[in-house]
Amino acid sequence: MASTLQHGSHDHPLQHMETMEASVRAANCGACDLPFTSGNDLFGCRSCSFFLHGSCTLMPASFPAHPAHQQHPLRLLYAPANSGGFFGCDICGNRGQGFNYHCQTCQFNAHVPCVNLSPKAQSPAHPHRLQLLFSPPAMGPTSCGVCGLQIQYCCYSCSRCSFFLHPR
């Protein structure tokens, strides 16, 4: 990757950086809101304390049809569409800030990590391969096989034995 890049989310050029700098250790990525770990490729603006994972600088500007929302395209926004500075993720149900994928027609919003959830997963809590569902199963209230809490949004599911798991 280049040592400097201009990203549409920030006014200043972003410099390639090392994660061991104190300013980076105290920050989360401005796009996905996840922390930086040793070995992350990242870019940042030291004067503004704005940092992005290298992979987050390469996110697609839109999804013409995403499995979680196939009705309309999702467009990458650098800030929530509403004026409050936060959005509710329609995939996981949690509140978010920063970058998000948004449908202007439906007001559908999604965290960057949520649109990138793997369609299949394996868990030490279950012997079979799990499939991602973007909405809870229609068979009524379903509980997570690990934490026991009710699943209200997306989950991983085993169709062979009706096992469900929160993505986290």
TrEMBL record:
Source organism superkingdom: Eukaryota
Domain DC1 span(s) in chain numbering: 9-56, 68-115, 125-167
Regions that span the bilayer: none
Pfam family, one: C1_2
Entry keyword set: Repeat
Protein name listed in UniProt: DC1 domain-containing protein
